[in-house]
Amino acid sequence: MTQAALSNEVSVLDWLSSVIEQHGTKPSSLIPILQEVQKQHRYLPEELLTYIATAMNLSPATVYGVATFYAQFSLAPKGKYIIKVCDGTACHVRKAMPVYEALRKRVRLVDGKSTTDNKRYTVETVSCLGACGLAPVVTINDRVYGQVTPDAICLIIDELEKEEGDQA
Amino acid sequence: MGSMIIDGKTVEFNGETNILQVIRKAGIDLPTFCYHSELSVYGACRMCIVEVDGRGINASCHTPPEEGMTIKTNTMELRKIRRNALELLLANHNRECTTCERNSTCKLQDLAQRFGVRDVRFGERDVKAPIDTSSPALVRDPNKCILCGDCVRMCKEVQGIGVLDFANRGSKMVVTPAFNKSIGDVDCVNCGQCAAVCPTGALVVKSHVDKAWEAIYDQKTTVVVQVAPAVRVAIGEEFGITGGRSTIGQIATALRQIGADKVFDTSFAADLTVLEESREFIERFSEKKNIPQFTSCCPAWVKFVEQYYPDYMDHLSSCRSPQQMFGSIVKRYYARETGIAREDMFVISVMPCTAKKFEAERDEFKIDNNPDVDLVLTTQELARMIKEAGIDFAELEPTSMDMPFGFATGAGIIFGVTGGVSEAVLRQAHEVISKKELTNVVFKEVRGQAGVRAVETQIDGITVRLAIVHGLANAGRLLEQMKAGEVSYDLVEVMACPGGCVGGAGQPISFSASEIRSERGKGLYREDQLQQLHKAQQNPMLNDFYQKWLQSPGSAEAHEALHTHYGSRRRIDGEAISVNEFDSAPIEIQVCVGTSCYLKGSVNLLKLLTKKIKDEGYEEQVKLRAAFCCQQCAGGPMVIIDDKVIGKVSGDRINEIVQLIKDKLRVSAS
Predict the structure, then answer these.
(1) pLDDT in tens, B34-53
(2) Contact map slice: A 59-88 vs B, CB within 8 A
(3) Which of B308, B311, B416, B454 could join B501 via S-S bond, C-beta 3.0 to 4.6 A?
(4) CATH number of the domain located at residue range(s) B2-74 in this protein
């Protein structure tokens, strides 16, 4: 189920219908609308996608197709911190994978999951962030960390945990 | 107009939209998976590649013909690319051919054979996706999908629905219903056209052959079989007989040999439908009530209206389809006549159609949970049973059907082709209205292959406006035009499948669908010509039947046995959206935001209601949710308070709802 009201004033549905109204219901508006939902909820809840399909007179299968095509959209809730470990060629040869493994272990991700149970971290790999000179590269939300080592990534997480009140 | 050189031969072209068509016209069977003349060009399978002089290698399906082109279709390089592409497709494909439904009718198998692929150098997929058997009519096996997208485009472009689409990308790409749901949980109308165009076994008709054998082997059960009109002109294709030639006599013989106790003709029930439906039409037409009348023979069309056009539900004829009329009269009257208990009678339909499997399972057509039609077999499935029994179908001695329900007029037989229902109804309506004998029974104007045929015909000086439609996308467009007031009709015939029932997805698989469909259609018109009687009202067996059991068309008894009503239907299953955070509040209010209610302004209603509840100070007492469809669309916008459903809620009725909340709180407080 979707999170409740976004604020005391606006319900999620009012918000979504105003977003749709603002972008219009032509097919090319679908991606901008999905981007706003992704930004607001950090994922695309199924029932909101169904609503978007209804409001835009599109087939839900088409909306689902677009939502699953782009890496920027997620159908499962994502964490507060989205951590991308670059595994492009340059980062890979400079040992990105040990960083990735250390990170997963540090935030206790098991069974192929990519988001921690407390919804604090989402860990993903990407193919090249375009900063090969800094390899291996990790981004956390909009911050870029270069020449990361397994130890370094754990220190970075320690810092974040401290900020969050160390409840993990 | 122009000419080009294909493999050294000069070939004329005239109006072809791509060189693939020109090449095939020149007698070269260039292979394709993703190309269908009736669908948009996709250009993904790369099997139709050719070498165009000066341009290199191009996909012929989306290269328009130009004057003076020089084309090679068969070079060392082309052959290598095609084989490689095939090999890669095969690597991604579950190759358990021997146990596949489409064994011997699979295009991938066929091309692998044609290109002599004897070895696949690439590894297999290590993860197997689950098979979706949720639908009453279709089975989807993603492991056999080659991502040609034929089903996606068929459903979207021809049927106007879009149940399936591509999801994910790259090596994870699949063709799936929305949110990876099962086909049975979304808005699929079961027309099966996706399976008809699927080149492999990724989408197939659900087989009920084993259940049919079980009933036949059960000594206690009387197996009564009905055979639909369109089956007789198609089943021969499975046995080397040209499509369009009627083999109804051989079907009767084969069914008896297999073990059916009685073999009847659905066309008899179609004659019955004609009488009931024209009576209904004449009544509505003279009262100008619920006009246009929509035909209701096609279960895919009926479900389409239930899901998308709830406001037009009253326009559907209340007549059951011929299949269901047949089931009803056999289990009600024939059972009584022969002294066989309803439960001991097993009615099997042989249909060209996959949606009939869904129709037979509908609750409307059951009495004490015993269905009027127990099992639906498609033409393909009957052919398989005949093969299994080792019967040489082509050499069978024809026999006639059993009486009384084995006798049909030409009117009932042409039900299987687009325009047929309208023509059969016209033959009856003319005589009823004008009270004169109709001598020319052929209504050429309603026949043809155009997707929408608007016809005006004069009956005794009165103009009747008809629209004959096939393909649900065409039907959807027509309904939108009707809504906008651009067109108006008195009678609208809709068949979901292109060409009508002869083009049904249960028919033998064919890679040249449109030609074979038109041959089958012609075959039914020929059958009509060969009959002694062409008007349903002339059917002597039918008249006897009315006298004995139903009195007259439209009688109370006829209504009970032959008519029904339909209800709104949700498109997709899914959770409601929470509008506020008071999940444990004592009262739950749901406002429907499904399409129909959405269009009637339910979102605004929800907004007003949220504000009102807050203003009145009940905010924390009410859990507000936006739900998707409570299946009562005609009465929308719908509001549900706990279990109470309130329809047609407009802004000025909000106080009424607030009053209900007050009452409820008072009751729970005291």
Answers:
(1) 999 889 999 999 999 999 99
(2) 59-65, 68-69, 75
(3) B416
(4) 3.10.20.740
Q: Please tell me which of the candidates A48, A64, A75 has its beta carbon nearest to residue B577.
A: A48
| pLDDT (tens digit per residue) in B633-670 | 878 888 888 878 888 888 788 888 888 888 888 887 77
| Domain over B209-562 is classified CATH 2.30.29.170 | no
Question: What CA–CA distance (Å, rounded) separates B519 from B502?
Answer: 9
A5 touches chain B (CB under 8 A): yes
Which pLDDT value is given to residue A4? 43
- The CATH class of the B577-669 domain is alpha beta
Is residue A66 helix, strand or coil? helix
B492-520 mean pLDDT? 93
* CATH class of the domain at A81-163: alpha beta
Triad B387, B509, B172: Cα angle to 5°: 115
| Cα–Cα distance, A139 to A32 (Å, whole number) | 24
Closest CA to A19 of A36, A44, A2: A36
Asked whether the domain spanning B577-669 has the same topology as the one spanning B88-205, the reply is no
DSSP B48: T
Write out the two tokens for A159. 């810092």
Our CA dihedral for A100, A106, A109, A111, rounded to 10 degrees, sits at 80
The pair phi, psi for residue B151, each rounded to 5°, is -65, -40
The CB-based long-range contact list for B302-306 (8 Å cut-off, 24+ gap) reads B302/B359, B302/B566, B303/B189, B303/B190, B303/B355, B303/B358, B303/B569, B304/B161, B304/B189, B304/B472, B304/B475, B304/B476, B304/B496, B305/B566, B306/B566, B306/B567, B306/B568, B306/B569
B88-205 carries CATH number 3.40.50.300:
no
Planar angle of CA A158, A163, A166, nearest 5 degrees: 65
User: Which residue has 């039409």 as its token pair?
Assistant: B281
Q: Which of B306, B359, B381, B493 is catalytic?
A: B359
Cα B402 versus chain centre, distance: 29
Q: What is residue B666's predicted lDDT score, i.e. its pLDDT?
A: 83
Token pair 């198998």 in the structure block, residue? B109
Residue B309 corresponds to which tokens in the numbers above? 């056009």
Residue numbers of chain A with a pLDDT score lower than 70 = 1-10, 166-168
Distance CA B77, CA B290 (A): 63
Domain boundaries of chain B, sorted by first residue: 2-74, 88-205, 209-562, 577-669
Tell me which chain A residue has its CA closest to the CA of residue B176.
A61
Q: Among positive and negative, which fits the CA dihedral A119, A121, A127, A128?
A: positive
B149: nearest Cα among B29, B60, B37, B45? B45
B575 closest CB neighbour out of A47, A54, A62: A47
**pLDDT given for residue A10 in this prediction:** 67
Is A134 buried (19+), middle (13-18) or exposed (0-12) by CB count in 10 A? middle
Q: Which of 1.10.10, 1.10.1760, 1.10.357, 2.60.40 is the CATH number of A12-69?
A: 1.10.10
Question: Percent of chain B at pLDDT above 70?
Answer: 100
